[in-house]
Amino acid sequence: MNADSDLTIDRYRDLAEFRRQIRQFLHFSELTAKEHGIEAQQHQLLLAVHGLPDGTNPTIREIASRLFIQHHSAVELVDRLEVTGTVVRHPGSQDKREVWVRLTPAGRAILRRLALAHRTELERSGPELAQALNSVLRHSRRVAAS
Amino acid sequence: MNADSDLTIDRYRDLAEFRRQIRQFLHFSELTAKEHGIEAQQHQLLLAVHGLPDGTNPTIREIASRLFIQHHSAVELVDRLEVTGTVVRHPGSQDKREVWVRLTPAGRAILRRLALAHRTELERSGPELAQALNSVLRHSRRVAAS
DNA sequence: TCGAAATAGATCGTGATACGATATATTCGT
DNA sequence: ACGAATATATCGTATCACGATCTATTTCGA
């Protein structure tokens, strides 16, 4: 079997369905975040900061790394979040170059509501997403060889 | 157990890890698409069109529906894809209001390379994504009640 | 110890994306 | 026939992410 015949129309459809499931979830996330007064990316920054492991400092650079964005994109997100009153900047205690980002009570309240909404949505749509991912993996080259 | 105590720090971390896995995948997708000369959203439109079920026409509206975007956002994506030479517009045969979007040979070639790259990436990172999703669902309210 | 290199963050300008509002062309329903 | 509905397009705006560049602070080697 050559590489060409390995990519049948059904394989494209598996990939398309997987992407559709991801987009459906992200679309839900987008709408829900906006209903609560923030943008989807801003919500994800709140979640990334609040979900940081113990002992990891909430610096701009750490946040950027976890969101897979450049540090100046994280700067801009924090700018916009500060305007909404959901986070505040603190100067780093040891290293004065650092800026630590902390959620305000308002930020924690929004994040909590969004976390509950997202969990409920994942209860509903998570199995379909897992199923779509499985369909891609089930027919992938390595797995198909077994 | 009230709703507050139900959302412990570990639940936030589960959600954060799930989002991190999704962002990692989308980051890979973004970089890989750009390496092949198109934007990530444009790649997803190509995939959505090529992965359409038999008998479903590739109209702007159908595409918009599958990408969870407004129809005029799909118009703009197709505009940009036409410039790159990966798709062409055809007037609808029956309904002259419709526009059918078709991949060019160049579009199919790019999509094929991207499909292979994404499948390889999902072989690598898919299990972690599934695991992260499971961690969210395992501790969700309904599941926890069992 | 002192100055260059490295690191952390901020700023500016740009392009892609998605949106709401609105416009045009075509088709449908009565 | 003709107003309502549908399909697509256009325009202006906001978010987001980027590269390039800047300042402040820390680190490290001569």
Q: Helix and strand succession of chain A?
A: HHHHHEEHH
Structural class determined from secondary elements of chain A: mainly alpha
- Number of DSSP-assigned strands of chain A: 2
Uncertain regions of chain A: pLDDT < 50 for 5+ in a row?
A: none
Model description:
The structure is a homodimer of 146-residue chains. By secondary structure, the first copy, chain A, is mainly alpha-helical. Chain A has one domain (3-145): Winged helix-like DNA-binding domain superfamily/Winged helix DNA-binding domain (Arc Repressor Mutant, subunit A, Orthogonal Bundle). Chain A is built from 7 helices and 2 strands. A two-stranded antiparallel sheet of chain A has the order 1-2. In chain A, helix 2 packs antiparallel against helix 6, helix 3 (40-50) packs across helix 6 and helix 4 packs across helix 5. The relative contact order of chain A is 0.15. The model of chain A has no long low-confidence stretch (mean pLDDT 91). The interface between A and B is large, with 49 and 49 residues. The structure holds a DNA duplex (30 and 30 nucleotides).
Question: Could you provide a short overview of the structure?
Answer:
Two copies of one chain form a homodimer. Chain A has helices at residues 3-6, 9-35, 40-50, 60-67, 71-84, 105-138, 141-145, and strands at residues 87-91, 99-103.
SSE topology sketch:
The structure is a homodimer of 146-residue chains.
Chain A: H1 3-6, H2 9-35, H3 40-50, H4 60-67, H5 71-84, E1 87-91, E2 99-103, H6 105-138, H7 141-145
Antiparallel strand pairs in A: 1-2
Helix pairs in contact in A: 2-6, 3-6, 4-5
The structure holds a DNA duplex (30 and 30 nucleotides).
